[in-house]
Amino acid sequence: MKILIAEDEYTTRLMVQVCLENLGYSIEGVEDGNTAWEIINQKTPPQIAVLDWEMPGTSGIDLCRKIKRLERSSPIHVILLTARDSENDISKGFAAGADDYITKPFNEDELRARIRVAERIVTIQSSLNSSLEELREALDMVQSFEEPVAICSKCQKIGAFDGSWRTPSELLEYPVDARFVQLDCQNCKPR
To answer: Stretch 119-139: mean pLDDT, rounded?
Structure first.
């Protein structure tokens, strides 16, 4: 699992990185919000982002808002890791869309536990998205069975899903339309 760490303080970034790499995660560490945003917009972005609130470029809180506005089937799990520990700041962090909030100085055991929870959430979300896609495909298939089958009144060719017209044998030879399966009728079944 890929994790992004956006933290401008080198020592903290390195501590988080080493802690998580020891757990087997693939880490990409950056020191500013603008670079973090570029990574978030890559073809295969990280599944988890650990963001400092105050850093150069885009702040962690603004980056969190931008991440949560992205249209994605699998949203990025955002953890704010910050020295801001007032109740007001924590509320602002969650209001911006943060999924979790850890204050500095952080406890490594707590960080590991929260990352593992984030991993479970990301895994469950991914599994749900896969199931949803399978259900959509099944629904599309069911709806296709409800549609009438077009047959040419002159040549007797059958209209397939792809817009082509084919003979029954062609449809069975090159299955382009799931509505057609080869079966034996009552008169043709072996007795």
So the answer is: 89
Q: How many CB atoms lie within 10 A of CB 91?
A: 11
pLDDT in the model for residue 152: 85
Q: What is the pLDDT of residues 50-77, one digit of tens each?
A: 999 999 999 999 999 999 999 887 899 9
48 within 8 A of 29, measured Cβ to Cβ: no
**Cα 159 from Cα 171, distance rounded (Å):** 10
Give the chain's domains with CATH numbers: 2-136 (3.40.50.2300), 148-191 (no CATH)
Are 93 and 62 a contacting pair, CB within 8 Å?
A: no
pTM (predicted TM-score):
0.72
CA pseudo-torsion sign 137, 141, 144, 149: positive
Count of C-beta atoms within a 10 Å radius of residue 112:
14
Q: Kindly state the DSSP code that residue 58 receives in the 8-state scheme.
A: S
Report whether 2 contacts 43 (CB < 8 A). Answer: no
Which strand (E) or helix (H) includes residue 40?
Answer: helix 33-40
- Output phi, psi for 160, to 5 deg: -95, 170
